[in-house]
Amino acid sequence: MAEMNNPPNDLFESLVLFLLKILINAMRFNNKLFFAAIIGLFILGLSACADHFNAKKEIRTHCVPGTEPVRKVLFIGIDGLRTDALQTANTPGMDSLVQQAYVCWNTDRGPYTVSVPGWSSILHGVWPEKHGLTENSFRKNKYKDFPDLFTLAKQFKPTLSVATLSHWDDFLKITSNEDYAQRYTSDKALYYAALDKIMGCCPDMMTLHFDDTDHSGHAYGFSPNVPEYISAIEQTDIYVEGLMDAIHYREITYSEEWMVVLTTDHGGEGTGHGGQDELPQTRKVWSIVRIPALNSPVQQPQANSVDLLPTMLNWMGIATENIASLDGIKIF
């Protein structure tokens, strides 16, 4: 989730006040200035609206059945889950995933430790200097130059079915070209909807965004010593375990092979996480990449969040060596 809403930009406020002054004076003395001020305020208004959630644009309600007979990808994003808190909590679901996964407890999520830059780096495979986002705002995004996971996947495999389900509206704005995209009012509702999709239309690639851990961190503190935060992590793990039960069923019944990727966008300190680039408990996160062929964990001493996108594309048979713009490299 966002580090609460950012205060208005000082420059933006100054421009609005300047134009309002011109408008007031122009109404008295100068028609040309009047119209210029009106146009300026209109343009600024459009800019201010750029971050507003547009349900008509972002929501897609038709889940298209998957076309890939064997390999699938499930990406599970758990917002604001600090590494040492995850290691402290009782998480049998994620622990079982680790036994079949490439695991890193020292994953660099990059600078600008709020959610929009974090998830953008992960799901576009490039750092903020390329995707252009350094705060919880989409106004300066360069998504057209550096496409997201689904857009890249469909460039190479246009018939793929892809879906996003999120407890945070803005997560839906980070990817595009989904066949199904929906927001939910709780992690619980998201969980049941995800189960329904996995056992029903079963898209080839799905991204999920759970938000309760971040809510708890902001309310009580991002720390392994905060019971409420640990409880939120353990509840999310119950959802992960249920999702994995469904995936195991599909792997056994339909001979599918699922890559399941779990990670977070930031940790935290106190009840916040913004402006904490230098704090390892905030910037250095964790990543789990589960594939069915592994029988024991492969521990990685370090990794980068931008490596997850090329790893997922590679699993779907898409050669990322042909995508020169990526900052990440496939993990295996």
Structural description of this entry:
Strands 1, 2, 3, 4, 5, 6, 7, 8, 9 and 10 form a 10-stranded mixed sheet that branches. The radius of gyration is 21 Å and the shape is globular. It has 2 domains: 10-49, no CATH class; 65-322, 3-Layer(aba) Sandwich (Alkaline Phosphatase, subunit A), CATH 3.40.720. The chain contains 13 helices and 10 strands. The protein is 42% helix and 15% strand. Helix 9 packs parallel to helix 11. It is of the alpha/beta class and 332 residues long.
Structure summary, number of beta strands: 10
CATH topology of the largest domain: Alkaline Phosphatase, subunit A
Radius of gyration, taken over Cα atoms and rounded to an integer in Å: 21 Å
> In percent, how much strand structure appears in the residues?
15-25%
Total separate domains: 2
Task: Outline the low-pLDDT stretches.
Answer: 4-13
Q: What is the distance, rounded to the nearest whole angstrom, between the alpha carbons of the first and last residues?
A: 30 Å
Give, in order, the helices and strands. Answer: HHHEEHHEHHHEEHEHHEHEEEH
Task: Assign a percent range to the helix content.
Answer: 40-55%
By CATH, the architecture of the largest domain is named 3-Layer(aba) Sandwich
- The total of helices stands at 13
CATH class of the largest domain: Alpha Beta
Could you name the CATH homologous superfamily of the largest domain? Answer: Alkaline Phosphatase, subunit A
Approximate shape: globular
Keywords for this entry:
332 residues, alpha/beta, Alkaline Phosphatase, subunit A, 42% helix
